[in-house]
Amino acid sequence: MVSRPLHYILAPLFYFAVAWVGGFFTSQGVKSWYPTIAKPSYTPSGSFIGIVWTIIYILSTISLILFVNRARGRAFFWPIIGLYVLNGIFNTFWSYLFFVRHALGFAVLDAFLIWVTVEMLITFIWFYSRMASLLLLPYFGWLTFAGYLTYVIYKTNSFSP
Fold first, then answer.
1. pLDDT tens-digit map of 89-123
2. Contacts for 86-90: CB closer than 8 Å, 24+ residues apart
3. Using the 8-state DSSP alphabet, how is residue 35 labeled?
4. How far apart are CA 111 and CA 144, in angstroms?
5. What is the rounded distance in angstroms from the CA atom of residue 152 to the CA atom of residue 29?
6. What is the pTM of this model?
7. Of 127, 133, 144, 148, whose CA–CA distance to 60 is shortest?
8. CB–CB of 95/112 below 8 Å?
9. DSSP characters for 37-83?
10. Contact 78/132 with Cβ under 8 angstroms?
11. Alpha-carbon distances of 99 from 23, 84, 145, rounded to whole Å
12. Cα–Cα distance between 60 and 75 in angstroms, integer?
């Protein structure tokens, strides 16, 4: 049986991996391709985006730890853990779609999936830990903006008649 404190190590490692892999994909196009595409004037700087994501990953890590502390052994524990993992996969995949593949339309779809999974997490974990749920609100807010920004970049850089 896994000892109870293991999630204090696994949760930060999970979000570190999500950040690292996403950062690796981002680095593939952020200096070469990204400066060449049209972006709206309200696009935040890369350093600001990095700070926001760092804060989001820290809050998400704390949310996951709080959820595990309150919900271990209770109904729907593993499906919600799976939702955290799915969200991390969608999050990382967005960087791949956007910065590596330059698949802006698919990145818009993926941004929507990230947004939906965060909304689901906020809703589902509310019953176990309100604080864990509230810690995801900045993530949800940022995704609302970032998803819209992804859509605007997609529309601005689409060359269909």
1. 999 999 999 999 999 999 999 999 999 999 999 99
2. 86/117, 87/114, 87/117, 87/118, 87/121, 88/14, 88/15, 88/17, 88/18, 90/114, 90/117
3. G
4. 9
5. 18
6. 0.92
7. 133
8. no
9. S---TTPPPHHHHHHHHHHHHHHHHHHHHHHHHHHTTSTTHHHHHHH
10. no
11. 10, 23, 18
12. 21
C-alpha 161/C-alpha 157 separation (Å) is 12
Residue 18, domain extent: 4-157
Q: Decide: helix, strand or coil at residue 159.
A: coil
Summarised one tens digit per residue, pLDDT across range 18-58 is 999 999 999 999 999 999 999 999 999 999 999 999 999 99
Tokens describing residue 112: 């929507």
What is the tally of structural domains in the chain?
1
Residues 45, 68: Cα–Cα separation, whole Å: 35
Torsion, Cα of 148, 145, 24, 80 (10° steps): -100
C-alpha torsion sign, points 50, 55, 60, 61: positive
What distance in Å separates the CA atoms of residue 49 and residue 55, rounded to the nearest whole number?
Answer: 10
The CATH number covering residue 151 comes to: 1.20.1260.100
